[in-house]
Amino acid sequence: MVKAGIFLLMRFWPVLSGTPEWFWIIAGAGACTLLIGSFFAIFQHDLKGLLAYSTISHLGLITVLLGMGTTLGVVAAVFHTLKPRDLQGIAVHGRGDHRPRNGQPGYACAAWAAP
């Protein structure tokens, strides 16, 4: 359901991609989403939050690619729309209920994830 808006943008791309407004509005919104999602993903201390914000950042990347208005940008956007579901499925289901020695869930015991 998260990618429904991206799918709608892909459906409108053949009609609206030639206008300069398309580039500025869509690519600008995508760049803001990409940067904000990446910024908030940096400060997450649990894996679910990290995956959620990285998904938001990735949707921003797809929006920037669609906003470029080129055929290559659309091909890359379609690729990025179809492929990450496999990688994120592996990440979500592969994390399990890992309990390291200190009893903290997830990767909270890593030195780089310390609050």
In short:
This protein is mostly helical and 115 residues long. It has five helices and no strands.
List keywords for this structure.
115 residues, mainly alpha, 70% helix
Rg (CA only): 17 Å
Poorly predicted runs of 5 or more residues: none
Q: Which structural class should the secondary elements be placed in? A: mainly alpha
- How much helicity do the residues have? over 70%
SSE order: HHHHH
Major β-sheet, in short?
Answer: none
Percentage of β-strand residues: under 5%
How would you describe the oligomerization state of the chains in this entry? single chain
User: How many DSSP H or I helices?
Assistant: 5
- What's the total number of strands? 0
Give the overall pLDDT as a whole number: 78
Q: How far from one another are the termini?
A: 32 Å
